[in-house]
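Before the break, one more example. Copy the sequence into your notebook; we will annotate it together after we see the structure.
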Amino acid sequence: MTQEEAYFIQSAMHFIGHDCDVRDSYSGRGMYDKTTYAVVVDDITTIIPAVASLAADGEPIPQEFSDSEGYREDSMGRQVVIY
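Here is what the structure looks like once it is written out:
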């Protein structure tokens, strides 16, 4: 996940009133110490509605987000990290 994607998702989540933290050096399973940007959310199912709401309000969707081949996720107890 790029920095722009992570902060776009955070903006979208805040737009609909949900918390979302950005991590700038997350290393997920199988990444072998490589790091990437990631977002931490309480409920993964809120991301798409959040992005849709922000886009409907006129916010342009970053090209990286539109071109994404998909994200990975890891459970963090009660939260989920998307990277």
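The beta strands are 21-26, 36-41, 73-76, 79-82. The chain has a mean pLDDT of 90. Try to locate both features in your own notes.
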